């Protein structure tokens, strides 16, 4: 990951092989490269669970590998290989955070479980992609504040994202569709500026 070299963490590189981990001091987190050898990465995450190396696993994958991911692999979280330094640092911080710091954000009918990467509306789970989840979470964390598309691209997608601001519109449209007619209005459009979270009225 290019972003990893921009952070101040101490990194030890080992082959994608369980035996190699036996000779490494237990790290704070294990990053497994699943960008190409998906089956090998899956096997390794499962072996680690029985090897005594109980550090949390952060799986590094590409867009093409996302459909193959499953909770039975044994990783705590995943990150795209092209993720920016800010996102990678946040994910490293979250997977190494002590148990008990799980953050649950609730605004009106919408609830975000940051640690569990789960979202729900009126108790009904929302099937969100990673970016949709991050966008919804970001807006919920700043209710009422207006964000331009450029700000959202920088803070949610990462400053090194090369796509255009149209991406934000597409994700907002998908989010509103998944929230449903009764709740889509919580993501308000501010004409010629951007978007904001509109707190739902009680009752």
Could you walk me through the main structural features you see in this protein, from its secondary elements to its overall organization?
GO terms for molecular function: phosphorelay response regulator activity; transcription cis-regulatory region binding. Keywords: Activator, DNA-binding, Phosphoprotein, Transcription, Transcription regulation, Two-component regulatory system. It comes from Raineyella antarctica. This is DNA-binding response regulator, OmpR family, contains REC and winged-helix (WHTH) domain. With about 200 residues, this protein is an alpha+beta fold. The chain folds into two domains: about 5-95, Rossmann fold (3-Layer(aba) Sandwich); about 105-195, Orthogonal Bundle (Arc Repressor Mutant, subunit A), CATH 1.10.10. The protein contains six helices and ten strands. The chain has a four-stranded antiparallel beta sheet with strand order 4-5-6-7, with helices on one face. A three-stranded parallel beta sheet has the order 1-2-3, with helices on both faces. A hairpin with a 2-residue loop joins strand 4 and strand 5.
Task: Report mean pLDDT, rounded to a whole number.
Answer: 82
The CATH architecture of the largest domain = 3-Layer(aba) Sandwich
DSSP summary, beta strand count: 10
CATH superfamily label of the largest domain: Response regulator
What is the strand content? Answer: 15-25%
Task: Give the CATH level 1 class of the largest domain.
Answer: Alpha Beta
| Unreliable residue runs | none
Level of helix content? Answer: 25-40%
List SSEs in N-to-C order: HEHEEHEEEEHEHHEE
Count of spatially separate domains = 2
């Amino acid at each position: 990951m290019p972003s990893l070299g921009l952070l101040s963490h101490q990194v030890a590189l080992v082959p994608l092989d369980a035996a190699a981990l036996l000779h490494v001091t237990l790290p704070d987190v294990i990053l497994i490269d699943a960008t190409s050898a998906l089956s090998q990465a899956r096997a390794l995450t499962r072996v680690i669970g029985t090897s005594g190396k109980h550090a949390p696993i952060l799986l590094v994958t590409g867009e093409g590998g996302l459909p193959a991911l499953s909770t039975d692999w044994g990783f705590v979280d995943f990150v795209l290989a092209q993720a920016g330094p800010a996102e990678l640092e946040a994910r490293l911080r979250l997977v190494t955070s002590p148990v008990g710091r799980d953050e649950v954000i609730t605004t009106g009918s919408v609830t975000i479980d940051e640690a569990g990467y789960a979202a729900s509306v009126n108790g009904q789970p929302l099937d969100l992609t990673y970016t949709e989840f991050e966008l919804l979470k970001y807006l919920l964390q700043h209710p009422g504040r207006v964000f331009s598309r450029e700000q959202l691209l920088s803070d949610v997608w990462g400053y090194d994202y090369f796509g255009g601001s149209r991406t934000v519109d597409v994700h907002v449209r998908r989010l509103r569709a998944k929230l449903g007619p009764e709740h889509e209005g919580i993501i308000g459009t501010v004409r010629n500026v951007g978007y904001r979270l509109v707190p739902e009225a009680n009752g």
